[in-house]
Amino acid sequence: MKTLYLLFLLFAWSLAANAQAQRGKASITIHVEPYSYDTLLSQGYHLAYRVHLDSGETDGLQSLTLVKGKRNIRQLNEISYPLPQKNLGYIGADFGDSFLFVQSYGAGNPHEMQLIKKKTGKELMQGVWVDVHQTEKVVLYIANIYEENETMKLLDLKSGKETVISDFQDSACVEERIGGLRDCVKIASVTAKEIILKIDDEAEGTSRKYKR
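RESULT FIELD:
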């Protein structure tokens, strides 16, 4: 009987010590910085920034979720916390029914992006950012980067037309800059009838026109 009583006391003491330890963890306050980038989208949508930490821990997970009102539509990305927020993602352009979701991994690295349909959260296109004209809903990007079938494409969301761009491959700028096409080609202007692309180098000044 005495042995059982001692075992009971040891068990009770273990439970109390564990509870005290848990209370000690819970009392630790973690300060989470607000999101550094704009999270508001048109038509009542936004990106919800969330950090998930175990009690008393400073490392965990951070995520961005596409939300309308109180409805979670889709978690767009999740990475370790506290990695830089630009790795997690930000809004590159808002086109009304869709938007560009972009991730940046530092100077010189490609900015990966996805075209997301707001209503469903469905990914409509993915690639590497080159340039965008938000008002006219035009996206210049690279598909399949670093692969044999790497291609620059011009996507016109207003007309639904996508054009493969191969006019700048032999540019001196492309040869000289580390990022190649993505560091050299820009959208110069967009009208109702045409899109003009140019080499972003004053010494070269090459430009091309494309019908919408």
